[in-house]
Each structure stands twice: as structure tokens, then as C-alpha cells.
């Protein structure tokens, strides 16, 4: 996989994970690590999924939610984990990973809203997954 494509991919993952663009140094770190960890050719299913998110970045959230339940070993999940690791170790992104203080009721409401959002994301991801299967079988 070429470096510009990996850098572009990391831009998408960074926006998804921390809602901001990464620094050039983090881009390079991700590209180097991805070349090392993902040197094998992806499966046809994984290649279709990665290509789809590059064309339709909004879909990352939904496909990640779906894959986290039904395809835990997917290439997308592995790449997002690598991107998260790179971002988490950065001093420029440390605030994104800090816990916010909340009351007990605040935590209960927060966790309930996360659970609801994730359920919706998995459902939308299931629809997109069906679309990916059609694309894969059409090629």
C-alpha cells in the first residue's frame, strides 16, 4: 500500500476518532506502522470495505460498529486500533482521552445514550454491510 493512501486513510480515522486532523508526524508514524503490520494483501471483503470508507467517510462509524460486533478480526478494526494507538500516544491529542467528571446520574444517562447510539450505528452498519456484500459479489 502506498504512503499517500495510508496518510489519507489516517486522516479519515483521525477525524472519526478525535474529530481533528493529525499532525504530519502522526501521519508518518501511522503510515510506517501500517506498512509493517498490514503488508499482506487484504481479503476481497476487507479490500471492498476499505475502498468503500475511502469513498464514503461517513460510513466509518457504522461499519466500525457493525464490525465490532460481527467481524472483530476485520482489517478495518485492526487499522482503527492502530490509528487509535498512534493518536493516544500523542501529546497533542491527550485531552481527547481524558475522562470527564460526571455525577452518578450523569454517568447513567451518558452510558445509556452511548448504548442507544451504538445500537443505531450497528443497525445502519448492517445495512451498509449488506451493500458491501452486493458490491463484493458484483465485482
Report on the structure:
The chain is flat. The chain has helices spanning 3-18, 24-37, 44-55, 60-70, 75-88, 104-138. The chain is built from 6 helices and no strands. It is 73% helix and 0% strand. The model has no long low-confidence stretch (mean pLDDT 91). The chain has one domain (3-138).
Summarize the structure.
This protein is 73% helix and 0% strand. With 139 residues, it is mainly α.
Uncertain ranges:
none
For the record, give the distance between the C-alpha atoms at the N and C termini, rounded to a whole number: 21 Å
Radius of gyration: 16 Å
- Mean of residue pLDDT values: 91
Main sheet summary = none
Tell me the series of helices and strands, N- to C-terminal: HHHHHH
Count of discrete structural domains: 1
In percent terms, what proportion of residues is strand? under 5%
Shape: flat
Structural class: mainly alpha
Fraction of helical residues: over 70%
Number of helical segments with 4 or more residues:
6
How many DSSP-defined strands? Answer: 0
